[in-house]
Task: inverse folding
């Protein structure tokens, strides 16, 4: 006498043809869970089927964006450049196995892009069941420059240091340009810390009309 009803069932109905005729051939293969002592019938794709349940959650959670700085020199903003940025994202299978993979993004930086420009790659974050992958967002940031800063209008600002005697009598200032050239700029009269000279069309390209340039302010 077999006390285990599951074994009794298996011994009595061991013929696969009988099972197919009883449950139907569309049930596919079967998966046995030794811990529970029960059978779960699988679809032909191998995924467990549960009455009234979908194999994929209806309301997946959107992960918050992954944000990274994209550091650019003023020379790169002046000429445009292609940058490659790498992130490492987590990949989790529905069975719970976890791994990591590298993702490389190619970004074509346009002439004159302003600091704070955002570049978004949708759904490129971690792969986790029940979650919609996060967007990956790169935000441009200017690297400090030896000579220049820039304002919100893409004007380049160059601070020239001069001696006190030159400030009182006037002088010639050596001015650097973003294309690595220089020019002598004559400044007459008394010079104060707020004295400015504007050299037209020698700043950075304008973001919306890159064929035009902003100014250089000395």
Result:
């Amino acid at each position: 006498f077999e006390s285990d009803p599951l074994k009794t069932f298996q011994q009595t109905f061991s013929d696969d043809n009988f099972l197919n005729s009883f449950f139907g051939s569309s049930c596919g293969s079967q998966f046995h869970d030794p811990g529970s002592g029960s059978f779960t019938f699988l679809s032909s794709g191998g995924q467990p089927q549960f009455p009234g349940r979908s194999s994929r959650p209806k309301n997946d959670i959107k992960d918050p964006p992954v944000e990274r700085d994209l550091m650019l020199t003023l020379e790169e903003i002046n000429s445009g450049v292609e940058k490659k940025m790498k992130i490492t994202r987590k990949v989790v299978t529905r069975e719970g196995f976890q791994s990591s993979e590298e993702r490389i993004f190619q970004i074509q930086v346009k002439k004159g892009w302003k600091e704070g420009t955002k570049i978004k790659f949708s759904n490129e974050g971690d792969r986790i069941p029940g979650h919609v992958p996060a967007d990956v967002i790169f935000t441009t940031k200017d690297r400090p420059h030896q000579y220049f800063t820039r304002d919100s209008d893409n004007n380049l600002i160059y601070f020239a240091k001069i001696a006190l005697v030159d400030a009182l009598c006037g002088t010639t200032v050596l001015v650097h340009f973003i294309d690595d050239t220089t020019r002598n700029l004559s400044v007459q009269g008394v010079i104060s810390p707020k004295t400015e000279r504007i050299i037209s069309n020698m700043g950075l390209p304008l973001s919306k009309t890159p064929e035009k340039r902003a100014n250089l302010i000395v």
